Amino acid sequence: MGKTLQVAADRAYDQSKTVLPAEVARGVYMRNAPSLRALKLMHLMISTAGGRMAQDVRHEMRLSDIRRIEGMAHHDRESLKPLFEELRAAVLTYDDPQAMRYTIGGLLDQAVVDYRHELSGDVLVSWFFGRMFRDMAERSNHWAILDRQTVFHLGSKYSVLLFQHIA
Fold it and tell me: Which residues form the Initiator Rep protein WH1 domain (predicted)?
């Protein structure tokens, strides 16, 4: 296990920060970069997963928790659909010159929005990170610690990507 996961697990108590693997923060390996709203959702998902981001487990949060965050749009189940589609379409490429090989994969394997109890306001959002992202997070020994509210208040996807890169 890389140091990034240890740092993310140690900072799980701090809801104001997100620990992001440096490989993702730099954005060097990402194609089809998601929109601003999808990037904000990605940060929230990684922050929610914390030290478990490299585990092949279902991560989840409630839609009501997303709505409570200042700087996130007032989402409903339909507004989340295109954001998850964008995150699913993002392509990660990792080139390992030592092994003389590169790997292509994705950030997100599957997302499920369970709206069976929508009338009571209990919508559950769950997801599995893609194998490529999990492997990258597990091997990562470098990380960026980002202030969540700063990310949620930035006004363009380029400002979020630049903030990640500089961090």
Answer: 34-166
- Over 80: is that where the pLDDT of 146 sits? no
Q: Write down the pLDDT at residue 97.
A: 81
Instruction: Write down the pLDDT at residue 167.
Output: 60
pLDDT of residue 29: 63
Rg (CA), the chain: 15
Q: Does domain 3-166 have CATH number 1.10.10.10?
A: yes
DSSP letters along the chain, please? --HHHHHHHHTTT-TTEEEEEHHHHH-TTEESPPPHHHHHHHHHHHHHHGGGTTSSS-EEEEHHHHHHSTTS----HHHHHHHHHHHHH-EEEEEETTTTEEEEEESEEEEEEEEEEGGGTEEEEEEEE-HHHHHHHHH---EEEEEHHHHHH--SHHHHHHHHHH-
Q: Give the model's pLDDT for residue 89.
A: 94
Q: Return the structure tokens found at 4.
A: 């990034």
Structure tokens at 122: 């209990």
CB 63 within 8 A of CB 77: yes
Map out the domains of the chain as residue ranges.
Answer: 3-166
Mean pLDDT rounded to a whole number for the chain: 84
Look up the pTM and report it.
Answer: 0.84
